[in-house]
Amino acid sequence: MKIYIVRHGETDYNLNGIVQGSGVDSSLNETGREQARHFHDKYKNEGFELVITSGLRRTQETVQGFIDDGIPWEVHPEITEMSWGEHEGKSGTPESIAEFNAIKRGWSEGAIDGRVGGGESARELSTRLQRFIDHLPDRPESKILICSHGRAMCGLVTLLLGEHISRMNEHTHNNLGLWIGELKPEGHYEFHLRNDRSHLPGPVKPGKW
């Protein structure tokens, strides 16, 4: 099985440094829609047999071109964005950014029950992402396109690599960054493309939250 995992396109929340998370159902902005068009143009003949998104509209809008092509589409809530609790829908402040960075450091050190703003812990994120991963080997499709979110994808690719969730800070990406991986006999996935944005024009902007 080959999986193509892409982060959703840019939203105004991304552009303006406003926290999204699982509780904010934002749409792509014009840049995000353009990114989605470029991605579809490059991969429309890739032969995807299934498209999977979270339940949030920014993931669906990113891959809508493939859905419109008639490729079967499924919504899997397990791959939705992490909950950032009380910070969702708000601009990052020095205090909230400091909290986020401290919790992230804690996750890397194994304190995976830490929560940002009373939201979701890394352990809870890992549990639901693992449920999603566990169902993949039983699927009949051989080539799947998956569209998810920034922090959720950090966790997803970490677990797909067979690593502990505490290492998810090592696997970052940008809007419309693409990872391509293949299931190996040992049971983990090997990625030969990581955060690729060669399908997009212009410079790469760093992602936020």
Itemize the secondary structure elements and their pairings.
Layout: E1 2-7, H1 12-16, H2 30-43, E2 50-53, H3 57-62, H4 64-68, E3 73-75, H5 94-108, H6 122-135, E4 143-148, H7 150-160, E5 178-183, E6 189-196
Parallel strand pairs: 1-4, 2-3, 2-4
Antiparallel strand pairs: 1-5, 5-6
Protein name: Putative phosphoglycerate mutase
Enzyme class: isomerase
Pfam family, one: His_Phos_1
- CATH fold label: Rossmann fold
Question: What is the distance, rounded to the nearest whole angstrom, between the alpha carbons of the first and last residues?
Answer: 30 Å
- CATH architecture, by name, is 3-Layer(aba) Sandwich
* Share in β-strands: 15-25%
Task: Based on Cα principal axes, name the global outline.
Answer: globular
Task: Report the biggest beta sheet as strand number plus sense, adding barrel if it closes.
Answer: 6 strands, mixed
**Tally of helical segments:** 7
EC number: 5.4.2.12
GO molecular function: phosphatase activity; phosphoglycerate mutase activity
Pfam family, one: His_Phos_1
InterPro entries: His_Pase_superF_clade-1, His_PPase_superfam, PG/BPGM_mutase_AS, PGM_Phosphatase
